[in-house]
Amino acid sequence: MKKFNLYVLAAFASVTFWACGGSGNNSSESNSAATTEESATTSSNAALSQEIVLEGNDQMKFNATEFKVKAGEPVTLKLSHTGTMSKDVMGHNVVVLTPSADLSTFAADAIKAKATDYIPEGHESSIIAHTKLIGGGESDTITFTLSEAGTYEFLCSFPGHSSIMKGTITAE
Ligand code: ZN
């Protein structure tokens, strides 16, 4: 009986192991593959470059959300609006925030700042740089330096856009 139990246990354990091992392995493998792939994609997408090219479209999306730059060296960021809608309806900008800034607070105040193209007053210390607000077919280029290593969030501060139109620039 004991032997049988042990056998059952062993069989059960090995089945469980196999099952877990199988699916667990698979999923962890695909997870780690995904993670590896992601970080590979991230690092290939976000290859260290002092030139950031961002596109915003009529679907309220940026074409990329992760960038990597060298700290202490000038970064050129070009924002293009690949859509056709006007800046009153589908305006885009890029606001690069300091690491300590709070994106949601900033975005909430930006909604009320139509007069200044959604760059809210009183948040100057949170802003490292920003493009102007552009509409379809337009572009704007800015240059700034992220002096300290860290993660800097950016967003489009047009009302309602920052929940999707945001990303990070990692300075290292
Ligand atoms: Zn936008």
Summarize the structure.
This protein is an alpha/beta fold and about 170 residues long. It contains 3 helices and 8 strands, in the order αβββαβαββββ.
**Helix and strand composition category:** alpha/beta
Shape, principal axes of CA atoms:
globular
Q: Helicity, in percent?
A: 25-40%
* SSE pattern, N- to C-terminal: HEEEHEHEEEE
| Portion in strands | 25-35%
Question: Quick one: how many beta strands?
Answer: 8
Strand order of the largest sheet: 2-8-7-4-5
Ranges where pLDDT stays below 50 over 5 or more residues in a row are 1-44
Distinct ligand kinds:
zinc ion
Tally of individual helices: 3
Biggest sheet, open or closed, and with what strands and sense?
5 strands, mixed
Describe the structure.
- 33% of the residues lie in helices and 26% in strands.
- The longest helix is centred in the N-terminal third of the chain and has 44 residues, at 2-45.
- The model is unreliable at 1-44 (pLDDT under 50).
- It has 3 helices and 8 strands; from the N terminus they run H-E-E-E-H-E-H-E-E-E-E.
- The chain has a 5-stranded mixed β-sheet. A 3-stranded mixed β-sheet has the order 1-3-6, with no helix packed on it.
- The site of zinc ion (ZN) has 7 residues, from loops.
